[in-house]
User: Which sequence fits this backbone?
């Protein structure tokens, strides 16, 4: 796996572990047809695999690390929804301000990736620091 992608995924996986969320069984390297080979910016890509499905994650290599972390957090959240569907609530990570309605969203603020309340735009926890 590309080191930039691995570095961006680490704090998100740390949050999955801290919240007892599902973890992918394996991460496959790269797939064709996106990023620089399709005329876009250079990217690193992988597929997260779970019980029954896979979800792609992409990181643009020219972005600063906080933006990369927020970018891959979105793909990981999509994978978690699919993985939990039908067996547990899918709003991962849960917003502590509104735990029954929506997940937190990764956004960059103050040069860091933060899990943020979608409704109130309140930063809750830096990505990688959930408890």
Assistant:
């Amino acid at each position: 796996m590309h080191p930039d992608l691995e570095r961006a995924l680490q704090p998100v996986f740390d949050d999955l572990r801290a919240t007892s969320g599902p973890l992918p069984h394996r991460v496959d390297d790269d797939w064709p047809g996106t990023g620089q080979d399709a005329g876009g910016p250079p990217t690193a890509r992988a597929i997260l695999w779970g019980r029954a499905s896979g979800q792609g994650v992409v990181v643009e290599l020219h972005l600063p690390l906080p933006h990369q972390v927020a970018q891959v957090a979105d793909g990981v959240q999509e994978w978690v929804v699919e993985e939990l569907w039908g067996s547990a609530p899918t709003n991962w990570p849960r917003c502590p301000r509104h735990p029954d309605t929506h997940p937190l969203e990764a956004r960059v603020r103050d040069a860091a990736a933060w899990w943020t309340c979608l409704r109130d735009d309140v930063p809750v926890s830096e990505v990688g620091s959930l408890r």
Q: What stands out?
A: Residues 3-93 form one domain. The chain is about 25% helix and 25% strand. Residues 25 and 49 are 6 Å apart (CA to CA).
